[in-house]
Amino acid sequence: MSLKLSLHTKPDVPLEAAVICTDKLNGANETAIAALTVFHGNDQTALGEFFTVKGQCDGEIHIEGDLANVKHLGSEMTSGKMIIEGDVGQHLGAGMSGGEIIVEGNAGNWVAPEMTGGRVIIKGNAGHMVGSAYRGDAVGILGGEIIIHGNVGNELGSAMRNGLVVAGGNSGDFTGVNMHAGTIIVLGEMGIRSGAGMKRGTILSMHNADMLPTFSHACTYHPYFVRLYLAYIKEQGLTIDDAQLVGNYQRWVGDAIELNRGEILLYVN
Amino acid sequence: MITMKIKSTEIVDTFAEAFKMSGTRVIITAATKQWAMAAAQSMTGFATSVIGCKCEAGIERELNAEETPDMRPGVSVLLFAMDADGLGKRLVERIGQCVMTCPTTACFNGLESDTTAIVGGQLRYFGDGHQIGKVLGDQRLWRIPVMDGEFVVDEHFGIQDAVGGGNILILGKDQKTVLKAATAATKAMCEIDGVILPFPAGVVRSGSKVGSKYKSLIASSNDAYCPTLRTVTGKSLVPEDVNCVLEIVIDGLNEATVADAMRVGLHAAAKPGIKQLSAGNYGGNLGQYHLYLNKILEAS
């Protein structure tokens, strides 16, 4: 039997609810879950003050309501599945290492910062700093997958070192800034200064982009590995044109102010 | 001893003695099926017998674009060696020299197994520091820069216990008749997934026995099945009206697939002019698998 949490009182200020995570709720009864501590602004209160709790967590949690002001859902998650029927607030899946979070609506800023494994799927749009390092940290996500069906904000995959981050729509400025490795795919258009400061890693976009002067055009070719990635995200429900699977891509190499081992691949229509 | 017949062909009451080997499956893809086949043929060349080639390899089947990881035409190759360590070395050698060198190819693991050999993880050094590792789900790939773009190869290839040396012997009235029967048999056997026939076009004429009068040789001509020696050796197994014998050797990923291939091969080879169908063994003391022809046929 899965656990269902329904938001009955919309928080006036951000509600920090890191306790809503499969690892922390597995096996607990309704009363115990409702009594768990959350922070409403700087007030310490009980989860039951905002959510109706029904059922028991067997590795799966369903959450419903407008959670745009609810933060840290699924933080440090290691296994199981969370399905969120609605919008969700900042820091979703922060530091998660396993399991899966599916959001049927939009997500706020800082989706899965510094995650090391698992998967986050956002069916709507997401804010800034998706899959990023925290400010001051040199390294962002070390693994896992973040798949956004819609648009994302600035600094997508900032300082990421491994893993896969996908935006089905457009991305903002500084996509893949300070990237160490890993793969970012943007099916829409990217904002300015993509790949700034990147050392290694791949940024793949289906549209042309303004390249920084510290990137150089190497060649136009058909990278076979792209087929594997596009087929993989197609399985996740994103729309991939057959021409993109078999087409040619410009390979831009940079950032020359760093190692110059990163690449931006731009689909040539 | 004869206890069974298929049409007019006698089935000798004996068994094929097969050996425990290590096997793997390699998926080669390319821009066209011709280039994929060129790489596969190169990779499976000089791989007829572990005795002289260190491995046995063959083409399992062609793959449609829908069946391959990168959705390009492909070829499935099976490779066998006496142990996992040796198989890993052969994979690195043959993928490095025969597949990476072939234009437009990529090379993927085709066998899920807990035992693996690191292949792309070794070939990547050819990239001289410019290689790029990618992780997609549970798959780790290497992109090695080459002159037509990149060679993409899986880091790990799965290895499992396998069966090598399944065989049938076709004894007939003349070379033309036996060749025709052998060709029909190999065509039927190639329809079975999970097996390969490592010899030229699947057929071997120089069947061997263990040992030799010459101490330096570990194997020598199987004189018991040489028609020219029928009255010489004193232990000939060639009937009087038989003038040609050909053998088909089968390697497979498990005993059942080898037996399946032998079964369809026996049925296909049983033609007019084929006196007997038999199998080669070493008395049962060397191989771990004894594939009795009668049991295989009864199972069908």
Q: Secondary structure elements and their pairing?
A:
The complex is a heterodimer of chains A (269) and B (300).
Chain A: E1 3-7, E2 15-16, H1 22-25, H2 30-34, E3 37-40, E4 43-46, E5 51-54, E6 60-64, E7 70-71, E8 81-85, E9 100-103, E10 119-122, E11 145-148, E12 164-167, E13 183-186, E14 202-205, E15 216-221, H3 224-235, H4 242-246, E16 249-254, E17 262-267
Parallel strand pairs in A: 1-6, 2-7, 6-8, 8-9, 9-10, 10-11, 11-12, 12-13, 13-14, 14-17
Antiparallel strand pairs in A: 1-5, 2-3, 3-4, 15-16, 16-17
Chain B: E1 2-6, E2 9-12, E3 15-29, H1 33-43, H2 50-53, E4 56-63, E5 74-81, H3 84-99, E6 106-109, E7 115-118, H4 120-123, E8 132-136, E9 139-146, E10 149-154, E11 156-172, H5 175-189, E12 195-196, E13 208-210, E14 219-221, E15 244-252, H6 255-269, E16 274-278, E17 289-292, H7 293-299
Parallel strand pairs in B: 2-16, 6-10
Antiparallel strand pairs in B: 1-2, 3-5, 3-6, 3-11, 3-17, 4-5, 7-11, 8-9, 9-10, 11-15, 11-16, 12-15, 13-14
Helix pairs in contact in B: 1-3, 5-6
